[in-house]
Backbone:
């Protein structure tokens, strides 16, 4: 029997290794898997690379993980936002490495990793500082940059509904990076607000099919992200 | 003659007059977001947000905010009937694939050939942040810029070549400032409109690139 | 007001030009836009390139279009299937050009066109005859083939539900190539079994957002494809 | 000694014993499709179809066919509880991205290093057709081949190097024939099982590549 449901947050993140690349869902404060991040903090893995759109705000979730000092590097598009004080302090002190990636390229690079694409040419960032050192090519009169897949060891994802095969739905714009990150990681761990029986999600309304998901844990009252 | 630069809201109001009926439009953070408030009521414009929304409506009433329904500026929004939700990769496929008719963006500098600089000043003290700026600038079918004509110090923001790091090369189609409306054409910058009382020589002085005045130029309507 | 609904099949295909590349949805007999194909036949455009997974079966729809002699070239993954007699006759007579593309590459190439990707590296077909003449590259020990975007002038798509903004849903496995083709064409024309008011499709259940669609025509009793 | 090659259904039955519980599996057209009929009832296997289905169930009862619900072989299928529907590009992202645990494929020839030829004979009389064969062979995490050990004319189908056009290089993990079960290993082809009564020399004679016999080889269970 295929059963991806695990009994606890601790079990969901138990074997995350030091040095892992962790994809963390969410945009702004929507879709951030707060409880999974807390579980990762408790679990203690260090020397992490975190891939996520924003670098946290306030003192909870992503910011709290950064504050542990266990994140060596962050890959994101927009680290500097309202309340990103923890990141800014670490960055100013030279205690965290930053790889800045345009938002669409960030998402497309993870999609490439998930879809088995070895690299792709994008017009985004052509002729800019963020293309420096990258291979470029003129295609039909336009300049493109070669971008490489961005793969995670682990993805931490927040979903609305899940079943034991790992089929997922999301809530409104909390969907954001989650479906792509679920594809792009070797181990995809999901916190879902509600578990349903197989067949409880209409086959045509599954957003992330279970084949992309490894573990599901129920978190029925998720905390808001970005709290001070 | 004396002239009065447009207030920020007046720039947004001027742009709103040009947003076509039925267009799919992405509004950048800040001033561009305000354009939606001034689009004439008889036009139906479909707003796109790069975090996975088409058909955004206005801000919700106080107390009706949903933390899972925010725009790219992380402000609470609503959905219009006909809205759709999708994931980030699809949201940027729409942008990069040229499906978004118009991106309205703020700018720090614009170059005479349409180069855009709106993400970094090159100041290394602060961590850089780019968000979706480069994707929008490179991908949207049309790019209009909204900005003050000069910096607070009076330095021109329209230049032959940008001195700040570029967001994208040769992408801006039109510039709306507090002084003028300027098209980026193959023959250079063409002034379409100026605020009442401003003369062309004065505008040229405040501009770091050569301007031409359109034969049919007019005053920016009040 | 944004209204993509057109009053007739004839109006939906009225301005398709000679020499166009036409993407035609469907896999097997599921999802084939039979009535739009018939309308294209009546419209008379010729010297067409048709991109579709199969080369038609029986004597209707794709096969009927091929039989008009107006298709110069077909781009597909599996032209030879049960009942593909029209294609086989034309091919044997040297009257149609065939570009054979692996099914996943076919879909990914159209996705690239729709998503503004200038090209991508795929492991599919590496080391095979279908990679001959193509640029290849070794990436992390594996051989990849550079594939180019495949753009349509027109896409003909069958949907289940549509609204006036062009939002679409599909029925079961009739979805197949339609969402990708809708992205990949300059003019996307849809026949929908049912038109609904704006808001009649739950925003989270829209499969193809209206931004990818140009024209919608109602065909409430679509004919089955692949008939003899 | 005499031996009896397996019937086609018996090959499918033998493969079915090895399909792991909880696996995501793509079944090729023809004989591989039959494997589903023989998977032990206590295993839950999730079947993928490249036209956009996960969680396919068995063929519907006569009269219950839905023309919009077909598998990659264009046969009518059903959906299991837990099934999902997606578009072609996502279906192949699953395949190419290595998310499908196992592809069970037919073959014309298999090379000693796991090369697969199953799409064309090189005969130019017929139009070529490839479908999803190359994507599945290159992309699935595991590739098992089901085929007769030799052609109808008795020619070997397992060769040092394929003579037919390749589907993919170095992808086959295991070969199930009507005579034997053979692993493709870094050290070459390793015979794990043979039909009762067949001796290794006889098997080698029917094979166009050098075989080794595993120390713990056994008879294919009846």
Residues:
């Amino acid at each position: 029997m295929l059963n991806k449901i695990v009994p606890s947050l601790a079990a969901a993140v138990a074997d995350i290794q030091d040095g892992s690349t962790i994809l963390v869902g969410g945009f702004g404060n929507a879709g951030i898997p707060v409880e999974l991040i807390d579980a990762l903090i408790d679990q203690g893995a260090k020397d992490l690379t975190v891939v996520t759109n924003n670098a946290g705000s306030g003192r909870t979730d992503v910011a709290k993980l950064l504050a542990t000092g266990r994140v060596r590097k962050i890959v994101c598009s927009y680290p500097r936002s309202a309340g990103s004080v923890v990141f800014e302090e670490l960055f100013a002190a030279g205690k965290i490495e930053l790889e800045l990636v345009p938002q669409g390229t960030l998402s497309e690079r993870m999609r490439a990793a998930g879809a088995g694409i070895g690299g792709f040419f994008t017009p985004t960032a052509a002729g800019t500082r963020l293309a420096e050192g990258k291979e470029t090519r003129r295609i039909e009169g336009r300049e493109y940059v070669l971008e490489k897949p961005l793969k995670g060891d682990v993805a931490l994802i927040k979903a609305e509904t899940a079943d034991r095969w790992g089929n997922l739905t999301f809530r409104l714009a909390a969907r954001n990076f989650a479906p792509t990150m679920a594809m792009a990681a070797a181990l995809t761990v999901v916190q879902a607000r509600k578990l349903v029986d197989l067949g409880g999600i209409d086959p045509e309304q599954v957003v992330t099919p279970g084949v992309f998901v490894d573990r599901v844990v129920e978190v029925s009252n998720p905390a808001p992200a970005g709290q001070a | 003659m004396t002239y009065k630069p447009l207030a920020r809201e007046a720039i947004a109001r001027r742009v709103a007059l040009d947003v076509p009926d039925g267009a799919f439009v992405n509004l950048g953070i800040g001033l561009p977001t305000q354009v939606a408030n001034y689009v004439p009521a008889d036009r139906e414009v479909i707003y796109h947000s790069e975090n996975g929304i088409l058909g955004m409506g206005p801000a919700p009433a106080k107390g009706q905010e949903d933390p899972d329904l925010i725009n790219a500026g992380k402000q609470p929004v609503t959905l219009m009937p006909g809205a759709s939700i999708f994931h980030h990769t699809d949201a940027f496929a729409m942008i990069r694939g040229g499906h978004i008719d118009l991106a309205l963006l703020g700018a720090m500098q614009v170059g005479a050939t349409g180069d855009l600089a709106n993400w970094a000043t090159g100041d290394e003290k602060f961590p850089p942040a780019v968000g979706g700026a480069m994707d929008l600038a490179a991908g949207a079918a049309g790019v209009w810029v909204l900005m003050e004509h000069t910096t607070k110090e009076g330095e021109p923001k329209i230049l032959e070549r940008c001195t700040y790091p570029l967001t994208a090369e040769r992408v801006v189609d039109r510039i709306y400032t507090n002084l003028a409306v300027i098209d980026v054409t193959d023959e250079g910058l063409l002034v379409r409109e100026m605020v009442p009382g401003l003369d062309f020589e004065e505008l040229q002085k405040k501009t770091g690139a050569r301007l031409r005045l359109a034969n049919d130029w007019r005053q920016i309507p009040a």
Q: What stands out?
A: Residues 8-216 of chain B form a domain with the Glutaconate Coenzyme A-transferase fold (CATH 3.40.1080.10). Chain B has five helices and 13 strands. The longest helix of chain B spans residues 8-16.
